[in-house]
Design brief:
Blueprint (H helix, E strand, L loop, with lengths): L2 H5 L3 H22 L8 H10 L20 H10 L5 H26 L6 H10 L3 H6 L6 H19 L5 H21 L9 H7 L6 H30 L13 H13 L1 H6 L9 H9 L12 H27 L6 H26 L16 H20 L6 H21 L12
Length: 436
């Protein structure tokens, strides 16, 4: 698809999507502000109410949720100094971070001249309307900051490795990449899988020189070692591990012990459980994929939303597989859209491997221990695969080489419907719905 040819045609279409998205998201926020939404809300708010900038650390042996880095809690604490309740402070920050994730991804697409193309529009608004992203935008939690960090790092990395820059802007963008990666890891340790992004952007760029390779490694290694130093001071000196967890210490003690014993006694069988759904591993693995589409441990408001959540959960996997096939069939195309997609898809693979490693170290059965929010940035990878699948599928369904515009209208209409339904019926994502 010729990006330049279609840029003018779809400029107004993208703006219509933008205004609709902002209106739908603000409507959702207005309806849900003040509600206790999210995982571990009580633990999160306890830490916000306890710490301060002068005393930012609390032992996780005292408050189990203090196991996370303090930056997200400190920002919420700062808002409470202006008379805002801890609950509203946390939700306001989640709102800002979710819009940050959306707008920085939009800026990235615009800088690559992809924003006003059908693939760019579908990718952006489909990804931002995946139930998990809607869920993260209004809950009390830290994962939305990592999601926002992913979009920011991607944007700044593109400015370094894909866009010709003068020395000063290039240096400033490098500083912004380093700072954003560092902040992402200081919001939550699930920010560590974002570290390879600068290298991936470099790898799929057209100008792969040694100078740019060294710059990519510098932007990765500086935040990595600074974050590691923080974890060394925070946990390693006391707990003898960099990635300390309260699971098995205060909560799920017997379950954690049994899970570790089963893993150590049957390491090969445990490894196979990642691929083949054996009985013992189903409760452990299912929450990851489910939570991108619906919270199966919550009650739905209606039969329709229950059906829709199960439909998403079931058919999205099929479409993603079709998308993977289409991606590999089109891998030789050198255009910007496919190279951008390769970055997004590679980031998703990194996230999945990191979650697999986490599952090995934390082999809990059930209890949503392996939630998809830990790799929320993978939702962009899902959106990319669904975009490729949708465009390819509609093209195949229409015989005799259909007009490009007709295929694009079908795909855009489906994206608009997906965006509207998911925002107006948010209990698909586990959010209580009082609208209908």
């Amino acid at each position: 698809m010729n990006t330049k040819e279609k840029a003018f045609d779809y400029r107004m279409t993208e703006r219509a999507f933008l205004f609709a998205f902002i209106a739908l998201r603000l409507l959702l926020l207005a309806r849900t502000f003040g509600q206790y939404l999210g995982y571990d809300v009580r633990g999160h708010l306890q830490v916000v109410s306890t710490i301060s900038w002068l005393h930012p650390f609390v032992s996780p042996h005292t408050l189990y949720y203090a196991v996370h880095p303090p930056l997200g809690f400190l920002l919420a604490h700062t808002l409470t100094l202006f008379g805002i309740s801890p609950l509203l402070a946390a939700q306001m920050l989640a709102c800002v971070a979710s819009f940050g994730a959306f707008f920085f991804m939009r800026l990235t697409l615009r800088s690559l001249n992809l924003l006003h193309t059908v693939p760019g529009i579908v990718f952006l608004y489909l990804g931002a309307s995946i139930p998990m992203q809607i869920y993260l935008s209004i809950i009390v939690g830290l994962d939305v900051f990592v999601l926002s960090g992913m979009s920011m790092v991607l944007f700044f990395s593109v400015q370094i490795f894909w866009k010709p820059q003068k020395p000063l802007p290039l240096f400033l963008h490098a500083v912004l990449v380093i700072g954003t990666l560092l902040l992402a890891t200081l919001f939550k340790t699930s920010g560590f899988p974002l570290l390879p992004i600068p290298f991936l952007v470099f790898f799929f760029s057209e100008d792969r020189t040694w100078k740019r390779f060294l710059m990519a490694m510098v932007t990765i290694l500086i935040p990595f070692f600074l974050s590691l130093f923080f974890l060394y001071e925070r946990f390693y000196l006391r707990e003898h591990t960099f990635f300390f967890s309260t699971a098995g210490l205060f909560i799920w003690v017997d379950l954690f012990r049994m899970s570790v014993e089963w893993r150590d006694a049957h390491p090969f069988l445990f490894s196979l459980s990642y691929i083949f759904p054996i009985r013992e591993s189903v409760p452990r693995l299912m929450p990851t994929w489910n939570s991108f589409w619906f919270m199966y441990d919550r009650e739905f408001a209606s039969i329709f939303t229950a059906f829709l959540g199960v439909f998403y959960n079931s058919f999205a996997a099929v479409f993603c597989i079709f998308g993977v096939i289409a991606v590999f069939l089109q891998r030789l195309k050198p255009d910007c859209w496919h190279r951008f997609g390769a970055i997004i898809f590679s980031c998703t693979i990194v996230q999945v491997f990191c979650l697999v490693a986490y599952m090995w170290s934390m082999p809990l059965f059930g209890y949503l221990a392996n939630k998809g929010v830990y790799i929320a940035s993978a939702s962009w990878g899902i959106a990319y695969l669904l975009t490729v699948a949708a465009i390819s599928l509609f093209t195949l369904m229409k015989q005799n080489k259909p007009p490009v515009r007709e295929v694009e209208q079908y795909v855009l209409s489906g994206t608009a419907l997906f965006m509207v339904i998911n925002h107006l019926m948010p209990d698909i994502a586990g959010i209580p719905n009082s609208f209908f």
